[in-house]
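User: I'm putting together a teaching handout on how sequence relates to shape, and I'd like one worked example. Could you take Transcription elongation factor, mitochondrial from Piliocolobus tephrosceles, show the sequence you're using, and then write out its predicted structure as tokens right after it?

Assistant: Happy to. First the sequence, then the structure tokens directly below it.
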Amino acid sequence: MCGPTLFMAGERWRYFLAPSRSSLFRVLHNSCCRKKSTTPKKITPNVTFCDENAKEPENALDKLFSSEQQASILHVLNTASTKELEAFRFLRGRRSINIVKHRENFGPFQNLESLMNVHLFKYKSTVEVCNSILHPETRGEKRKLPENRFLRKFLKPDIERERLKAVNSIISIVFGTRRIAWAHLDRKLTVLDWQQSDRWSLMKGTSYSSSVYLEEISSIISKMPKADFYVLEKTGLSIQNSSLFPILLHFHIMEAMLYALLNKTFAQDGQHQVLSMNRNAVGKHFELMVGDSRTSGKELVKQFLSDSVLKADPRVFFPSDKIVHYRQMFLSTELQRVEELYDSLLQAVAFYELAVFEP
């Protein structure tokens, strides 16, 4: 195992610990086997899961559930709002949106089979959805304690699950030594705003003047829209080398300033609006980790931009009136990798997928 090495990536200091061959293979193996099965543990009797693309006999779904169960499922599908549908397992994100849109365009669902006419629904996924509506609490109660422990591993401070589930928009903020970037996303993973600022002078000199930090950060915050939560990247940089002290001090001052300036109502209600999200947790979510080092997310962000134009149901949606601007902004970083810009978007997506949508 090689010793730790300090290197600069996109003007941001990082520790790199070169892994041995055995540890590298172990990391790659764990990465491949990391995803959990989404098959529910409890289903209604006689429900069997088959190949997603296999053709089922006519009225196959109606034969799996009693008339009372069908009535309960259809009542939810025909009356619940998008947010209410997202409370059920397998109905998070685009699926709940597609159900409401289909209902508005074609009227209420007449039977369970008609749910398969909705985009993203086939036989297997429709069975899973029906079961999640019939058993909304069974799996949730079993997962409640482990789920809270899971959140604590990458999100600080502790936030009630209900507040996370009710989020409508967040601003993800990532800062380095010379720039700061932020991404504003709603719960549909639509990019409402995405910016960076690299015209600050906080690391010029060693005075660390509080007034200068206050002026610079206040100016940046004034450009940010309001959101339910402001999520800061937590690098986990440890001071193993005295030469890193100036950078570590800068990070701590930045974090403290952002917590103080963005938690505007904390004194009144004691509710945190600013959270810190572990950088490596985001890297693991997108499989960007190699050993203890996180690789660049540039290509992944580039793919998000491309998919938003080419795919009908992209993972991240960039509005048509802003996509050209965002693409130009991204292309302007080709020569100098602006990791803060890429990371702010990836962190926002990971926050929703890990903390908000995860059942």
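A couple of points you could highlight for students: Residues 1-55, 138-146 have pLDDT under 50 and may be disordered. The first strand starts at residue 4 and ends at 9.
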